[in-house]
Amino acid sequence: MKLSEGGKLSTDTMAAVRHVAETYILPRYKRLAEDDVRAKSHPGDLVTVADEESERALTMLLPEILPGSLVIGEEAASADPKVLNRLGGDEFVWIVDPIDGTVNFVNGIARFAVMVALVRKGETLMGWIHDPVANQTLWAEKGGGAYLMQGDGAPVKMLVPQPAGENFSTMAAGFYSRDTAKVKGQFGRVVRLGSAAHDYWSLVDGRTQVLHFKGLKPWDHAAGILIHKEAGGFNLLLSRQEYSPAALDHTGILCAPNKALWEKIVAELSAEYLISRHLFASVGADIKRT
User: Fold this and answer.
1) Is the sign of the CA dihedral 247, 11, 100, 84 positive or negative?
2) What would the DSSP string read from start to end of 155-171?
3) Alpha-carbon Rg of the chain, whole angstroms?
């Protein structure tokens, strides 16, 4: 489904996101006062006034770009999880993570980003990741490819670099689950960037080859999963189903440069782990028959 002739919706969204980042986020970067930061569910789950102000601003601006659309921000969803039920409906819904990588932002580390996805009927149609410090934006439209905009430059089509072989020891990976310890130890380098946005970005530009997340909050993943796929990468849930931001009970996502490497990683996971979580019922049935 094409939403924007000539990419107007995408460019208008990028302009709105950049404006919000320059107005509410960058002025507070490395300038946060002590009372500008508070913990939500636990001490490591931080929110800042920049998160709250930028989410409010995007909640006002995005429906002006696409009249009749709704906005679900991370902070609003944290306060009322029932709003996530709207993701499976007929309305166009914007999913907003005003600052992905808030802990990095609070600590003055330049690995944070604004993430926005446009969803309808449980399907991600468009996605944007904006790095305010570098003033760069990755974005994609379903069926239309993935692109990088650097400042005011021309958009550059992005393609996930393909590794020369399938030797894990030559690759970098991000694993966010202890359940994958058996595979994690086979990779040459394991990285954690503290920001899902930057994790997905590193997949697209080839700094990282493999990524696995277990918990999939839609504001952290909807945009990145679409961008990775539209850039030619291969990703599926471990249940071998397509990711949907409307599904709240996921088995975890695995992203790889291609299907062959994805299958090899899954094969390396212990059958015990997979069967215990009912991910591959057919495998479990075969074992029981023997």
Assistant:
1) negative
2) -EEE-PPPPSS--GGG-
3) 19
In angstroms, the CA 29 to CA 227 distance is: 26
Please report, to the nearest 10 degrees, the dihedral formed by the alpha carbons of residues 223, 225, 226, 230 taken in order. 130
Q: Which two tokens stand for residue 194?
A: 């503290």
**Phi/psi-derived region of residue 68, left when phi > 0, alpha when psi is between -120 and 50, beta in every other case:** left
Beta bridge partners of 33: none
Residue 14 CB contacts under 8 Å (≥ 6 apart), including other chains: 128, 130, 137, 139, 149
C-alpha pair distances (Å), 132 with each of 21, 40, 117, 227: 6, 24, 17, 18
For residue 62, count other CB atoms closer than 10 A to its CB. 24
Q: What confidence tens digit (pLDDT) does each residue in 79-119 have?
A: 888 899 899 999 999 999 999 999 999 999 999 999 999 99
Evaluated on CA atoms 62, 159, 222, 171, the torsion sign reads negative
Domains along the chain?
5-158 (3.30.540.10), 168-289 (3.40.190.80)
Tens-place pLDDT, residues 159-187:
999 999 899 999 999 999 887 887 888 99
The pTM score is 0.91
Alpha helix positions (H), the chain: 8-20, 49-65, 74-79, 102-106, 181-184, 196-205, 218-230, 259-268, 271-276, 281-289
